[in-house]
Design goal:
alpha/beta; Rossmann fold; globular; six-stranded parallel β-sheet; L-2-Hydroxyisocaproate Dehydrogenase, Chain A, domain 2
């Protein structure tokens, strides 16, 4: 039963082997043929809370759908390809997960991705506003600090924006922090849960190491861990580039993190209580219109937004330094839609 052991190793990602009957939930992965989309779709196919998995991409999606369809789990799989099939992929969706877009390559910053991925996301948001306006939208496409505001503005223009149903997926920052902190402190990684606030790019990522119960960090540990969590994506890009070719960005870890967040969201929509995830949502905790903070998920999406608590002097310094950038990146997304 290797598959069971595999899923149980990432219990939040798959929430596997639930004894209760699944409530019908349709999830669509947009960008399902990509480096993130394929492994994330596989994990979602293995999640018994997902009853219909729709996979969509501009190319290569029928093959991905056929491959997923051979996995012996209960979710129905439908594959959709090209602009003329996007509407059918989206109709009836409860959750739309969006890893679509151009990945980061060596030497690229998230801002380098903005124009291309901004246009892609604006078009997808427009399609979702027509096909599934009541769905929850989980945005992975970078730069998240700007693409989430793009989605908000497009949905507002269409008259269907619900701030409780739009999420920037920052789970990878938490996943990285949990792994790196557990390794540094010799903790059980499955019992490690680091709160990571702010945004999803470089220094806008602020891990709250001071709030980890039982941890004992040196000043050097704090500096090194903070930087590594903030720039973990660069570490992957550089490592893949060293293998030759054009390299690539984090795909497997992002797929796991995306499946984890989506699984939590679907479970909350099904009525499971007490699910808390750090996620990039609209709130008034700071001067930034969108800010990642712990959020209780519920049947309507965001159930409660939690304050991130007291910061250490180092964390406060990092917070103060990054907040103007986070505000500016949100404004960039808003202005992008206004200029369309």
């Amino acid at each position: 039963m290797f598959t069971k052991q595999l899923i149980q190793a990432v219990p939040k990602a798959a929430r596997a082997f639930s004894k209760t009957a699944a409530v019908d939930k349709k999830v669509c992965v947009i960008g399902a043929a990509g480096g993130i989309g394929q492994p994330m779709s596989m994990l979602l196919k293995m999640n018994p809370d997902v009853t219909h998995l729709a996979v969509y991409d501009m190319v290569n999606c029928p093959g991905v759908g056929a491959d997923l369809g051979h996995i012996n789990s209960s979710a129905k799989v439908t594959a959709h390809q090209g602009e003329d099939q996007l509407h059918d992929a989206l109709v009836g969706c409860d959750v739309v997960v969006v890893p679509a877009g151009v990945p980061r390559k060596p030497g690229m910053t998230r801002d380098d991705l903005f124009n291309t991925n901004g246009s892609i996301n604006a078009g997808l948001a427009t399609a979702c506003a027509k096909a599934c306006p009541d769905a929850c939208f989980a945005i992975i496409s970078n730069p998240v600090n700007s693409t989430v505001p793009i989605w908000a503005e497009v949905l507002k223009n269409a008259g269907v924006y619900n701030k409780n149903k739009l999420f920037g997926v920052t789970t990878l920052d938490v996943v990285r922090a949990n792994m790196m902190v557990a390794d540094n402190q010799d903790f059980d990684v499955y019992a490690t849960d680091v709160t990571v606030i702010g945004g999803h790019a470089g220094t806008t990522i602020v891990p709250l190491l001071s709030q980890i119960e039982g941890a004992n960090f040196s000043d050097e540990d704090i500096a090194a861990l903070t930087k590594r969590i903030q720039f973990g994506g660069d570490e992957v890009v550089q490592a893949k580039a060293s293998m030759g070719g054009s390299g690539g960005s984090a795909t497997l870890s992002m797929a796991m993190a995306g499946a984890e967040f989506t699984g939590s969201l679907v479970s909350a929509l099904n009525g499971e209580e007490g699910i808390v995830e750090c996620t990039f949502v609209e709130n008034d905790l700071t001067a930034a219109p969108f800010f990642s903070t712990p959020v209780t998920l519920g049947k309507g999406g965001v159930e409660e937004i939690h304050h991130f608590g007291e910061l250490s002097p180092v964390e406060q310094e990092n917070f103060d330094a990054m907040l103007p950038d986070l505000v500016a990146q949100a404004e960039k997304g808003i202005e992008f839609v206004k200029s369309m």
